[in-house]
């Protein structure tokens, strides 16, 4: 009577895996195609761009586009500005967020839980809500067209990164602090000599997220910076686009230059990224 | 004996309280100067006529009245933003979930796929806007060239007022890596035994997905939904760079119109009124999700 032999478990597995790979490769191609299109276009001459069907591998390869993109705008001024802001904001957020996270994760003080809920709720306040009064405040104290409005607030502990660090600090056993306290260590000592060294991965995540935020931020610099020589790369790229409309190869070359550092950073720090995002999704 | 001593030490002492406030000081300063003050000031300015140069003039609820009764662009921008949110958030969450489920297999090369799906998320928005302008170019863009191969004449995308919002929604599905990673972490928390029990009962993969994966992931879906809505109501850069709100105001999003009122027309009071309405809208949607969450979010009994 029996007609169907059950396919062996092994054969089943192979088919299942093969199918999974096929779907993943298909989807991954869709997600990576824009990047290939970006780099491919950035290396084409202006006549090659408008060839249909498009050539994926440019012939000849026009490296010249990159030189043009870097020299047509004062690229290194923008890079310097972005790096100054990135470096100081990373420093500011590492310092302030870790201190505040320490208070919320490892110290007991009246109102702590209420203030923590307050901190979490401020994460939901959209920047456009505070944008106008902040602009007015900064223009009254003469901070417009300086880096200060972009830098100083990061020394006041961004709620998001503080939350992230607090989640991590909580996982460090309390006994470590208690033992140090018995040995006569001060609170600042416990913070700097026990907690911070143990929290290196989380601090790395904070630094990376902050750097990425500054590198990508658009609305902030757009509002606060008025002189072109103060621009960050993000708004400089928008300026470049306006000045070289329809010169797609140049636009793609300039975009590639702005994207590249982020991608390099990502490849070196991938592990931290994944951990960091996971931490923010955590309950508790 | 030792545990007793430690317990006693963990009790709140006034010295620790002082330390707590001192350590949290940066946040307190930030909260008052960069959050509480601006929110209060925004409320005040929203009842004023204010162009920065001269001092604010109290005009009662005139800004709100004008916005609601006379400003058709306000309604247009609100509609555009709600439309964008309504499609891009659920679409983004679904795609992120599908990608996460596919990635949640212990197979070779998975970290490569994860990297590829995540990469678009870290690309600076300005750069991805420029790239997508080129992809969506009606004549020579990648998308329409591809559609032409399939024998379809692609639309004008961003140049067509009916397709401009769908274009930006499509673009938003490229950068769903953040939610994907959060889903992936959520998936790894689902106990294996649930699937094993289902397999014993003969459940197929679809059944398992609907009856185990989705219910167990509802806390993660909840998180991504709230964050997605908050973020998507603030959509700005794409429209600012790619379309400047056009064609025919079809991508004039709320924050873009707010930005114009504040920094192009210098109507600070009017822009503040818009900002507060945005705040209330976002708060409303967030609270609706939070209050309905007990009906659909699975909570682990600890």
List keywords for this structure.
A: MetI-like fold; 2 domains; 14 helices; B: 302 residues; mainly alpha; MetI-like fold; 15 helices; disordered N terminus
Architecture overview:
The complex is a heterodimer of chains A (284) and B (302). With 284 residues, chain A is mainly alpha-helical. Chain A contains 14 helices and no strands. Helix content of chain B is 72%, strand content 1%. Chain B has 15 helices and 2 strands. Chain B is globular. The N terminus of chain B is likely disordered. At the A-B interface, helix 1, helix 4, helix 5, helix 6 and helix 9 of A face helix 1, helix 2, helix 3, helix 5 and helix 6 of B.
Instruction: From the 3D structure, determine the CATH topology of the largest domain in chain A.
Output: MetI-like fold
> CATH superfamily membership of chain B, which one?
MetI-like
What pattern of helices and strands is seen along the backbone of chain B? HHHEEHHHHHHHHHHHH
Q: How many structural domains of chain A? A: 2
Q: What is the helical fraction of chain B, as a range of percent?
A: over 70%
Structural class of chain A: mainly alpha
Mean pLDDT of chain A: 89
Shape of chain B: globular
Question: Strand arrangement, largest sheet of chain B?
Answer: 1-2
Strand tally of chain B is 2
Instruction: Please give the domain count of chain B.
Output: 1
Helical stretch tally of chain A: 14
